[in-house]
Design brief:
287 residues, globular, 27% strand, alpha+beta, 11 strands, 2 domains, Alpha-Beta Plaits
């Protein structure tokens, strides 16, 4: 679709009102999620959000909420999680990453920061997200990078996986792709693009959609692992979409292989197309 554009469903609300004397800062955060219970602050377990809020307090003296674009499961990683905060601190936004990173553990890094445009909300303004899932396809698991991939010790056929995954492109009812505990009012989602390719022992899935149900990407990955090894038929995704039956699909893949790659807002069409350029191996898109 040459005229494909990203549209936010966000409507201005009280959450968009920046308190007097403060300004909204948008940040991009990278983290290794191995040691964390996910993004969201929780009781009795350490989260990425808690670490960021503690760093902000140590830097500015302010106790404030850092609002993320979405939650992540325990053990999931991120390269481009977007968040915002409303702060009275006068540190220039472009200096914020340097200042905060001195207060953060080494496995969490603020990669960029800027003044948020009027009406911006890290969660509600989101138009799409891209996730990457990585399989390590070798008889023996690697020592370096083992915390970022699912080990599959038998041969996988990435061509067969791509053939199966084409059924995911478009707008569908993905009820079968949600784990128990899903609280979304609707299970209809649009998958805009995906790519499956091999890089030596690693096979990667990159998938972009307007949103994903609870554990949806990990269920897709678990199903692809079985399709790639011949344990499940190529039409498994078709059956899952048509019937809504979770049993048509494979297990939920481990969290360690999943990374939130990038979050997209209005005007980010070029950035999305850059990830899914048609000349790259294994790309399928709506646009």
């Amino acid at each position: 679709m040459d005229n494909w554009t990203l549209h936010s469903k966000h409507r201005l609300s009280a959450a968009d009102i920046v308190p007097q004397g403060k300004r909204r800062i948008r940040m991009q955060v990278e983290f290794d999620g191995t040691q964390y219970a996910g993004w969201q602050r929780q009781a009795n377990v350490l989260s990425v959000q808690e670490c960021l809020e503690s760093a902000v307090e140590a830097l500015t003296g302010e106790q404030l909420a850092v609002i993320g674009c979405s939650r992540t499961d325990a053990g999931v990683h991120a390269l481009g999680l977007v968040c915002h905060m409303d702060t009275a601190c006068r540190i220039p936004p472009e200096r914020m990453p340097f200042a905060l990173n001195t207060k953060l553990p080494e496995d969490i890094r603020v990669r960029a920061a800027c003044a948020a445009p009027p009406g911006f909300h890290a969660r509600y303004s989101t138009c799409a997200k891209a996730y990457r899932y990585t399989f390590y396809n070798s008889r023996q698991m690697c020592a370096i990078g083992r915390q970022y991939a699912m080990h599959v010790p038998v041969p996988m056929n990435e061509t067969r996986m791509l053939e199966a995954a084409e059924a995911l492109i478009g707008t569908h009812d993905f009820a079968a792709f949600a784990a128990s505990g899903n609280v979304s009012k609707s299970t209809v989602r649009t998958v805009y693009a995906l790519r499956i390719w091999r890089d030596k022992e690693r096979i990667h899935l990159c998938i972009m959609g307007d949103g994903f149900l609870y554990n949806m990407v990990r269920i897709i990955a678990g199903t692809l692992a079985e399709i790639g090894t011949g344990k499940r038929p190529v039409d498994a995704f078709c059956r899952g979409i048509e019937t809504g039956d979770r049993l048509c699909l494979g297990p939920t893949a481990p969290a360690c292989g999943l990374t939130l790659e990038q979050v997209f807002y209005e005007g980010d069409e070029a950035a999305a197309r850059q990830i899914f350029m048609p000349e790259l191996t294994g790309v399928r898109t709506l646009f």
